[in-house]
Amino acid sequence: MSRRVYLDHNASTPVHPEVVAEMLPYFTELYGNPSSIHAFGREARDGMDLARERVARFLKVSPPEIVFTSGGTESDNFAVKGLAWARGKGHLITSQVEHHAVLRTCRALEAQGFDLTCVGVDEFGMVDPDEVRRAIRPDTIAISIMHANSEVGTIQPIAAIGRIAREHDVPFHVDAVQTFGKLPLDVDALGIDALSFSAHKIYGPKGVAGLFVRKGTKMVAVQHGGEHERRRRAGTENLPGIVGLGKAVAVRARDMQAEAERVGALRDRLWQGVSARVPEVRLSGHPTQRLPGTASLLFRHVESESIVLGLDLKGIGVSAGSACTSGNVEPSHVLVAMGISVDWAMGAVRCSLGRSTTAEDIDYVVECVEPLVRKLRQAMPVGAA
Amino acid sequence: MRYSPTLVDHFLNPRNAGIMREPDGVGEDEYAGCGDLTRFFLRVRDGRAVEIRFQTYGCGPTIAAASMASELYRGRLVGELCALDAAEIEQALDGLPQDRRHAADVAAGALRAAAAQYQARQA
After folding, report:
1. Tell me, what's the pLDDT at B33?
2. Looking at chain A, which residue has its C-alpha nearest residue B60?
3. pLDDT given for residue A324 in this prediction
4. Do A385 and B3 touch (CB under 8 A)?
5. Which residue in B20, B39, B57 has the most chain A C-beta atoms within 10 A of its own C-beta, making it the best mutation to test that interface?
6. pLDDT per position as a tens digit, A18-56
7. How many CB atoms lie within 10 A of CB A27?
8. Best residue in A309, A313, A373 to probe B by mutation, most B CBs within 10 Å?
9. The pLDDT of residue B99
10. Which regions in chain B score pLDDT beneath 70?
């Protein structure tokens, strides 16, 4: 196997060389603890301050409103639990298509006695803001809706939901892990009170992320200990990671628009190539309100993991929309919420493109998909067989 | 790669895949809680399975297990097929990861069912 094509950028990305270069001194030379008051600590603190400023500039907020964390999952847990626990009891609203970091956190809170409403989505995976409005009760204490879905790429009507949250004076959390550094984000204009973001989806390192918390938002810490992050998140900061996150978002602010146009065109090339050659294939997600680099392909009557394995053997990395673990296979909760029938949902394959993706890569993938799906269908007991 | 070269070969080049016209025995098995489904067709002469074909819906190991079984048991007595053990298929594939053991179980179950159906027809 010589050729390798990585089409799983929604899962993770390679760290940008400019990001690596900026991080390296923080492993060996600028290794102080940012909380220390001596010169070593102050140098480290300077690096962290710059990163915080860069993130704040991207979100058009002030630096003290940024809290660094260890990952998108921690940010989501911090936001949802922090908002809920600060109020002690009440009603939460989220959607059926959230990442498990939000959905399971909400379920855990439900088990603790909070009430929960999970609003549905339409066939494109989009939340109806009016359904959110109707779900609001006098005791609603938080709304958490993702910005864009990692599986199908649909971008939610965040501005409209933000307006509704404001009208009802309910804090609004947005999981923006898939859009931060990919789309412009103006949290004021969108009416957002808390926003989760991560570094490794945007060519930064793994293990570092953050949460924007609007000044004045009533929230409690989830992790206790020292005075770090203005007592909102205890623990010595992952300084090289935070420096990398800051640089990654600065690079994205510079490059993201041009890249969105380029990967959007490649995504279209992929879909056109596959749909012209393979029968019974659909593109899931919203036709226009979608992440530029994400294509969720549904191959009817084929099992997605067999496609992922077949493409893996050709050096291509994509991800399956359904996963068979311990003999238990379920279609993705996102596709189920969209009302996609099992015969299509079980054959979901997500291709997510990125800055290294070329037209030649896409043509190679299209070349490999057609014979693979044809062969798999020949052995199938249903449908095309 | 978490799968053996033998498994990968059977996945990429499945032997005896597809429907059989007028089979002497048909049987299928599905893994509980899992969408995997395999169906075997038998052609029997003088009490032996002279031809075995299959259709399957499942992940790579499930396809490979069915393909392997279709080769492994060709020429065997139907009575033997009725009592075949999934471990033999797993061994022939040079092993399966723990979370994919069901692939051999489904193939074995479907092939046993096809053999049992043939015997029921004869009775």
Report:
1. 60
2. A306
3. 53
4. no
5. B57
6. 999 999 999 999 999 999 999 999 999 999 999 999 999
7. 11
8. A309
9. 83
10. 1, 33-35
Helices and strands (H, E) in chain B, number of each type? 5, 3
The CATH code that applies to domain A5-12+256-378 is 3.90.1150.10
Location of structure tokens 């050096």: A315
Four-residue CA torsion sign, A265, A271, A274, A277? negative
ipTM, interface predicted TM-score of the complex = 0.70
Please give the domain boundaries of chain B with CATH numbers for all domains.
5-122 (3.90.1010.10)
Nearest CB to A381: which of B3, B32, B57?
A: B57
Regions of chain A with pLDDT less than 50? 325-327, 383-385
Global pTM value? 0.89
CB contact under 8 A, A301 and B101: no
The amino acid present at A346, given as its one-letter code, is M
d(CA A17, CA A55): 19
8 Å CB contact of A385 and B19: yes
Catalytic residue among A106, A118, A324, A351: A324
Supply B106's token pair: 């489904």
* E-strand stretches of A185-264: 194-198, 209-213
What is the pLDDT, as a whole number, of residue A332? Answer: 87
Q: What residues have CB less than 8 Å from B103, skipping those under 6 apart? A: B36, B58, B59, B61, B62, B64, B65, B96
pLDDT of residue A321: 73
The residue assigned the tokens 């911090």 is A78
Instruction: State the CB neighbour count (10 A cutoff) for residue A17.
Output: 10
Classify domain A17-252 at the CATH topology level: Aspartate Aminotransferase; domain 2 (3.40.640)
So what's the pLDDT on residue A383?
45
CA distance A175 to A150: 11
Q: What is the reported pLDDT for B40?
A: 96
* Paired residues of B52 in beta bridges: B42
First and final C-alpha spacing in chain B: 47
Asked if A346's CB is within 8 angstroms of B35's CB, the reply is yes
DSSP tally for chain A: helices H, then strands E: 14, 15
Taking the C-alpha atoms of residue B74 and residue B61, their distance in angstroms, rounded to an integer, is 20
pLDDT of residue A326: 42
Q: Do residues A81 and A213 lie in contact, with contact meaning Cβ atoms separated by under 8 Å?
A: no
Tell me how far apart the alpha carbons of residues A201 and A16 are, in angstroms, rounded to a whole number. Answer: 11
Q: Is A118 tagged catalytic?
A: no
Beta bridge partners of A295: A351
Residue ranges per structural domain of chain A:
5-12+256-378, 17-252
How confident is the model over A202-218, as pLDDT tens digits? 999 999 999 999 999 99
Side-chain half-sphere CA neighbours of A193 within 13 A: 24
